[in-house]
Amino acid sequence: MKLKTTITLLLIALAGFAFAQEAKSPFDTTMYGRNPAVGKYADIRGFKMYCETYGKGEPLLIIHGNGGSINNFLYQIPYFAKNYQVILADSRAQGKSPDPSDSLSYEMMTDDLNALLDNLHLKSCYVIGWSDGGINGLLLAIRHPDKVKKLAVTGANLWPDTTAVDPFVYKWAMNMNKTMRDSASRMKTPAPEIKNQLKLLHLLSYEPHITVEQLHIISCPTLVIGGDHDVLLPKHTMLIAQSIPNSYLWIIPNSGHSTPVYKKDQFNQVVGDFFAQPYRKIEGFGRFN
Questions:
Q1: Could you give the dihedral angle defined by the CA atoms of residues 95, 97, 103 and 105, in that order, rounded to the nearest 10 degrees?
Q2: Does residue 236 register a pLDDT over 90?
Q3: CATH number, domain 3-274, options 3.60.21.10, 1.10.510.10, 3.40.50.1820, 1.10.10.10
Q4: Is 235 left (phi over 0), alpha (psi -120 to 50) or beta?
Q5: Res. 218: pLDDT tops 70
Q6: Residue 124: count of CB within 10 angstroms of its CB
């Protein structure tokens, strides 16, 4: 198998899409992410961002993970579109939003999403983020707090080391990064696809760099989610929740990184309830309830 194909499949697998490696998977055949009836491009900060919108109601932004795209939320779009205006976009340098520049960071992608909301004339919205999308969700609440009403993140991390990431996954990501860079260095002129994969692998291996102190300034109610066998360690997920003033923590048993796929019914219901119900402080004798 060619290296580029291997990298792509492994990135997809890390985002939780074993299904995507099957020729007839629902992720290959869904209209989401390729729907000409609702798809459009927005000129955002020097590139064209592809986005789709479904449903009516209060706006809900859903953000995909590394190497992913809109269709990653096959199981969330129809559920939340019943009550919300669901907005999804292919992040910079991913999906149908190509970006030939050399740099890519979570801060760039977060500011892209903020600009998209401005482009759509939306002052604030609910937010769901998965994996890298969870990182972007945290940064959106930090960098553009007025834009986030409530935030639900699953499989997010603050920094890229083995205090946050499962050691096996960390070693795999670093090895893949080295293999890809060594291969590219032997090419006279690496193809644009290779350069793009290197940008995504850099994110996977060397970012983000969010401090606990930054989490302290998140003011919106936040639901922090992780599988008990996630690629992000449960203790790190707990740290994120404990560092956000108005947060709930949900560690899902018998679950890995792909909660929106393999635990879709639970995920949709719990996140939907979190958005619909007022956040409550649980203190004092309330802890006995």
A1: -70
A2: yes
A3: 3.40.50.1820
A4: alpha
A5: yes
A6: 17
